[in-house]
TrEMBL record, chain A:
<keyword id="KW-0812">Transmembrane</keyword>
<feature type="transmembrane region" description="Helical">
    <location>
        <begin position="61"/>
        <end position="82"/>
    </location>
</feature>
<keyword id="KW-0472">Membrane</keyword>
<feature type="domain" description="DUF112">
    <location>
        <begin position="20"/>
        <end position="438"/>
    </location>
</feature>
<feature type="transmembrane region" description="Helical">
    <location>
        <begin position="355"/>
        <end position="378"/>
    </location>
</feature>
<dbReference type="InterPro" id="IPR002823">
    <property type="entry name" value="DUF112_TM"/>
</dbReference>
<protein>
    <submittedName>
        <fullName>Tripartite tricarboxylate transporter TctA</fullName>
    </submittedName>
</protein>
<feature type="transmembrane region" description="Helical">
    <location>
        <begin position="390"/>
        <end position="408"/>
    </location>
</feature>
<feature type="transmembrane region" description="Helical">
    <location>
        <begin position="464"/>
        <end position="488"/>
    </location>
</feature>
Automatic annotation (TrEMBL), chain B:
<protein>
    <submittedName>
        <fullName>C4-dicarboxylate ABC transporter substrate-binding protein</fullName>
    </submittedName>
</protein>
<feature type="signal peptide">
    <location>
        <begin position="1"/>
        <end position="20"/>
    </location>
</feature>
<dbReference type="Pfam" id="PF03401">
    <property type="entry name" value="TctC"/>
</dbReference>
<comment type="similarity">
    <text>Belongs to the UPF0065 (bug) family.</text>
</comment>
<dbReference type="InterPro" id="IPR005064">
    <property type="entry name" value="BUG"/>
</dbReference>
<keyword id="KW-0732">Signal</keyword>
<dbReference type="InterPro" id="IPR042100">
    <property type="entry name" value="Bug_dom1"/>
</dbReference>
Amino acid sequence: MSTFDFLLQGLATALDPMILFYALIGVTLGTAVGVLPGIGPALTVALLLPVTYGLDPAGSLIMFAGIYYGGMYGGSTTSILLNTPGESASIVTALEGNKMARAGRGGPALATAAIGSFVAGLLATLALAFLAPHVVKLALVFGPREYFALMVLAFVTVSSAFGDSALRGLTSLFLGLALAVIGIDQLTGQARLSFGVPQLLDGIEVTTLAVAMFAIGEALFVAGQGASLQDKAIAVKGSVWMTRSDWGRSWKSWLRGTAIGFPIGAMPAGGADIASFLSYAAEKRASKHPEEFGHGAIEGVAGPEAANNASAAGTLVPLLTLGLPTTATAAIMLAGFQQFGLQPGPLLFATNPQLVWGLIASLLIANMMLLVLNLPLIGLWVRLLTIPRPWLYAGILLFATLGTIGVNPSPVELGMLLIFGILGYLMRLFGYPIAPIVVGLILGPMAEQQLRRALAISQGDLTTLVDSPVAASLLALSAVALIVPLIMRMRGKGGVLAQMAGDED
Amino acid sequence: MKTMILSGIFAGALALPALAADYTIIAPAAPGGGWDQTARTMQEVLQAEGISDNVQVQNVPGAGGTVGLAQFASSASGDPSQLIVGGYVMVGAILTNNSPVSLDDVTPIARLTGEYEAIVVPAASPIQTITELVEALKADPGAVSWAGGSAGGADHIAVGLLAKAAGVDPTKINYIAYSGGGEALAAILGNQVTAGVSSLGEFLPQVQAGTMRLLAVSAEERIEGVDAPTLTESGYDVVLQNWRMVAAAPGLTDEQVSAVAADIEKLNASEGWKTALETKGWANTYLAGDEFEAQLAKDKEATEGILREIGLVK
């Protein structure tokens, strides 16, 4: 049978009413946990694993897939409306999305996120079906030196998104990098900067920092301004739906986001957060309205949201073809496979085609369901902004704290949430951007570990870093991205850049 | 808003401690890992077999299980309803992290399951046997890079023990630590490293598919259905089992300890446990009482010795 026949057969399996019901439970739960900061899809799937012992394999795997996609989507809602990313992959969405929401364009922001997620999920799932064996070969080419080069590229391109002052952006980034070295060094097992506090041994949880910086910091900032606060958020201005120009500006971003997200998700050390950073940087470069970035550019929501969903599908490539889980959620899904006596890996497509294709088909259906579930809710979600501020921020504080405690019930974790919240407040007060600190915490350890691994394998020979074509081209690309703006500035075209960087908080 | 309220309730349910559990099992790791799965499988079988009416699992992740262990030793003391899952990795993590709490501060009940370590090379590698790999290691220890799990874990210790058994200085080994078997797997498949070491189960599907060559396993004797020699029969005296165990709280009376031990023995003898282990591919290496304590003491001594020689413990 050809791939296409298998897919049709899979769709027939997945259209069974009970299976559809499981998919519905999955996407609903997934959206719910994505909305709640701190609690991610991994924990939900783990909690549901024992519940699904009684179900048949197809039903439970489809439910897990629904949770996974739903979680990726749900995170964007709070990012856009409340500036509170539900998980690390939707941090970038908050940058532009929240600006749009405050200008009364929350509806279009949510819509472009939902439709972008759908488009990306659809294309990436089809790519998973038809290209998985080829993509995985490409992903395996990436060794430590290639990952290091990719991290360099990410640092260089993402730093362009740091807003007005390069100095302030870099200060924030380096704060993040400093926080990133806390904990057990993975390559030697030695504790760094943990000061004897056992909870610090595993380093600082990205979601804790992100929730503290965005949610707690924001709540303190709003409270600090008290009655003098002028810029009251406008719930809805113009249409709740996307206008013709919104569509025109979004569709290319969706496609670009998908093209970036899928391969990065397929890489064993990639991840949805990195995909969303790179997509944001790409959108800023490609946009015809670069001046709008930092003030609510719709491309900055459309691209990253497409990228993180495409990356979720990409993650399934190494899981299904190699048995290689690359995210916590995928690891638990692997456990789910094993509980039914299935061993994902090089032989799964050959030994269990019905199940694999059933899963892929159900991903398509889960994706459709998410859109149906979420589009009508947008009108309701944007009303959140009409809740009086004190109540709204009290709610945000409650959910942020609950989410953090729910994942890791420890007073130290709560203490960190508060301390970072205060840090976030101070940074806002003095005009330092907060995204770079989170970016530093995510990218820092990866860049460090991959560099050290590359050098360990080559026994200290630095030329290894440019010795592979992939690594060399990525590094060359980073150099171009770094040098071109400098030359433009020297030639007197810097005016545009400076203007672009205008006033931004 | 409804979703938010729902998820709030959901989070609340997660955060609430078990109020009326017959047993609360602490999994000192994040959801999804081996210890978490062991705890959740125990939960399911204990309930299904009617050994206990109500079993709760609580995750306390961090630092190779030492965060959970420390919390357990202080807060569960004297409470016979509290259990903790742990394993061989903890033995090493306690030493490398200078943990103030050790396995002496809890009451180990029984070893439940275990996995042996496997040494592999990529299919494209010129190395055909474990002897050839060790010869390469002897010639230039730094030139042989090993991909495996976290530093100081069972995989790292296995390489250290092999080097020592082969007469190579363990401080010279070039061990590349990855966050887990999965990432290490990718490095081996991508020909980034010379060899790989991890639990057998992690590599077996790849070996069967012909993308990796299995050179040796760290078991006492050959494993049924696995076509590879043991390290011992190849002339390197290394036996290493990455085991998982269950322990009770400190400060229990002898009667309380035997009651818990009896429940765990019932669990081990049950049909449900047997089926669960089979579907998960875990080997039953049940060992309890004095025999387990003797084995534990032996493992602690050997682990501390090799971690010192690798230079991870001062």
